[in-house]
Specification:
Elements: H1 5-14, E1 43-51, H2 56-69, E2 73-81, H3 87-92, E3 101-105, H4 109-114, H5 123-132, H6 135-140, E4 151-156, E5 159-163, H7 175-181, E6 184-186, H8 195-200, E7 204-205, E8 217-218, H9 223-235, E9 239-241, H10 246-253, E10 258-261, H11 266-273, E11 277-280, E12 284-287, E13 290-293, E14 296-305, H12 312-322, H13 325-335, H14 354-365, E15 367-369, H15 377-391, H16 400-418
Parallel strand pairs: 1-2, 1-3, 6-9, 14-15
Antiparallel strand pairs: 3-14, 4-14, 5-10, 5-11, 7-8, 12-13
Helix pairs in contact: 1-12, 9-16, 10-11, 15-16
Length: about 425
């Protein structure tokens, strides 16, 4: 069901009284009535909004549109530049003085909750989030209490870029097939990328929704087989470990035919490959005698509301407004930010952009929501250490099972220390 602009913001405002705070604005205007009617007096509010510098014009346009859609609110806006990735760090300095509404990367949700710096959305906004987004996107902003914190507006994951002169659409479905026909780079020493293999073969991180700290990280029964497959991968002369620069550089100079990255590299890849530019979701890989589908970690960027805001009704309505269907459409038109809204798959320019379909396919079919709980921090260092040991061949055929056992024990110990 499509959430229309006016419908989304109207519903958000109508039930803002659900927010467990005073429902009046900064200057004490009346809140909406229970039947959804507008207040008899204009409600004044001061709202501070944080977003990245690249979104300054989009935010200004959305603030103007919000004012037209909500004549019952008289808002004085203050905008400050804070990138999505810096939201939690900036909030930490003083949550009570932070922005009323801010854009954030969902992997910061645990920190924001620990700081009491993000409020759960109300029931109607939660319904908006569920109707607009895939389950992965909903999970990306769901706390350990089962409540939704924030309104997603774009997904964040990685997929594969490739040279169409080297690989066919069928070739890129299998990593093993690709390695027979061309040169492939993958960031195996990067702890955000290496779990794709283990997750594909059955590993789980903190339960089915990624919110159960007690469930820990369970490598499942196939961990040894996956590690053995990765030892073979490193030994393959057609494989290159991407340190974050080699993949794109290799595509440009022709020494590589495929590498894994995200939407942030799309323009550079298109420039490097021209008509040969292709993109696809992560492929399958063989471990032992079985084929497994790689599963990329996925998250979102979302709009959050500060529970310390003095204008909860207006802030709630504006957060829902920024994540609405029409706002996401405008975001694509202005900056090519891929919408998380499931109804916005045929916007002009999207169907002709290979990376858009690759990202959408990854989110829908070949991803796992990245856990946001603080215990997830136990993964990054052991995984990076193991990945680097694989690449340097310190993990090899002679010791792979023991090294895998050591890796799992290290993760388990660090998880226990976080609980």
């Amino acid at each position: 069901m499509k959430i229309e602009w006016k419908k989304a913001v109207g519903l958000a405002a109508a039930v803002a009284m659900i927010v467990p705070m005073a429902a009046c604005g900064a200057n004490g205007g009346d809140s909406n009535a229970a039947d959804g009617s507008k207040p008899s007096e204009t409600q004044s509010a001061n709202l501070t909004v944080w977003g990245p510098s690249e979104d300054s014009e989009w935010l200004k346009d959305m603030e103007e549109a919000f004012g037209k859609a909500h004549p019952e609110y008289k808002v004085t806006w203050k905008n400050s530049v804070v990138a999505e990735g810096d939201a939690a760090k900036t909030v930490k300095t003083d949550p009570t003085a932070a922005a009323d509404v801010y854009m954030f990367a969902n992997d910061q949700l645990g920190d924001l909750l620990d700081q009491n710096a993000i409020a759960p959305v109300n029931d109607v906004v939660a319904q908006q989030v569920k109707e607009q987004n895939s389950q992965t996107m909903v999970d990306s902003v769901t706390g350990t209490d089962g409540k939704i914190y924030g309104v997603p507006y774009t997904s964040n994951t990685y997929f594969m870029y490739y040279n169409k002169d080297k690989f066919s659409a069928d070739d890129v479905k299998s990593l093993d097939t690709m390695l027979e026909k061309g040169k492939v780079a993958y960031p195996l020493s990067n702890s955000w990328y290496i779990p794709a293999f283990y997750l594909g073969a059955g590993m789980t991180m903190f339960g089915p929704k990624g919110t159960d700290a007690k469930a820990g990280i369970d490598f499942g029964p196939n961990a040894d087989a996956v590690s053995e497959a990765l030892v073979k991968l490193v030994a393959n002369p057609n494989f290159t470990n991407d340190d974050g620069t080699l993949g794109l550089a290799g595509l440009k100079n022709g020494t590589l035919d495929a590498y894994f990255s995200g939407s942030w590299d799309a323009a550079n890849v298109q420039k490097a490959l021209g008509d040969k530019y292709g993109a696809a979701t992560v492929p399958t890989f063989k471990a032992g005698d079985k084929d497994y589908q790689m599963k990329a970690l996925a998250g979102s960027k979302a709009i959050g509301m500060n529970p310390n805001t003095k204008a909860p009704e207006v802030a709630s309505a504006f957060a829902a407004f920024l994540g609405s269907t029409e706002a996401q459409k405008k975001h694509w038109e202005m900056r090519q930010i891929i919408p998380s809204d499931k109804t916005l798959t045929n916007l002009e320019g999207m169907s002709t952009s290979p990376y858009v379909q690759a990202q959408l396919d990854t989110i829908a079919k070949t991803s796992v929501a990245q856990p946001t709980i603080s215990a997830m921090s136990a993964w990054w260092t052991p995984a990076e250490t193991f990945g680097k040991a694989l690449v340097s061949k310190q993990v090899n055929d002679g010791n792979v099972k023991q090294k895998t056992a050591d890796f799992m024990a290290s993760v388990k110990k660090d998880v226990a220390n976080k609980q």
